[in-house]
Amino acid sequence: MKTGTEPLLPGQAARVPGRQHEPERVIKLKRPGRWASYVLILIFAALAIQSVATNPNFGWPVVGEYFMSPRVLAGLVNTLQLTVVAMLLGVVLGIVLAVMRLSTNPALQGAAGLYIWFFRGTPIFVQLLFWGYISALYPLLSLGVPGGPTLFAMDTNSLITPVVAAILGLGLNEAAYMAEIVRAGIVSVGKGQTEAAHALGMSNMRALRRIVLPQAMSVIVPPTANNAISMLKTTSLVSVLSFPELLYATQLIYAENFQTIPLLITASIWYLIVTSVMTVGQYYTERHYGRSTRDQSNGMLRRILELQKRRGTTDAAAGRRI
Description:
The protein contains eleven helices and two strands. The chain is mainly alpha-helical.
């Protein structure tokens, strides 16, 4: 029998006999500062849009005329190709350098550390200039036996063209940064994973390829994607090598018609479009590895434990047969 004095549950309001219980009203907090910031931002945005749209010095008709120009599109294609090739070179060489840095061999550690120190410590613009003027240091590239005959010789200017100089300058510089990114990803994986892989008879390289790197991808992918976006914009520096990428293509056009600002706006719009597409791809790639890496890690541990348990059961059965 209820006496009406039962204790109330947490969050339960007291009911008065004979009166209908009314639901509690939620009173929203007033945030005048937030609304004031909205108004200020809208005012400044409207003023900026009006200024950009009505100022004739921006030359929007010229922008529309050259936006789909074959010369500009050819420069855009060269920029994309250079970005992909330089990033591939940087990623592959960066993985090698990261493994060398984590090696127990002092010679490999020292060589990788010296490489990273040099290419991270000097500006990439200076490195591009060095590759562009490498013939001043080595007019002839040759390979042969010391003190003996020359097996191979080639003119440096014929071998190191502007596109090769651009790829080497961007790719070798990117490798120094990718080495640290990959090293951080490998270190983030617990040592127990490698020890368990070694217990199953895996070699160091196989454990790195099958166990460590897949789990390290969640740490490696985000900064790598950021570096790829940065690489796309850094390709504008190779205009100093007279390589016809996007910026240099627009420079050649405004050197003829003297429409500097509209052509620079055209290049900037294309950079914004491509980086926006890459940002969307980065978002989905990070989400994929952020979800799958945890499942994959648990799956690997589960498989390792099952294999160890199966091996123990097999050994016990073999002992009983003996």
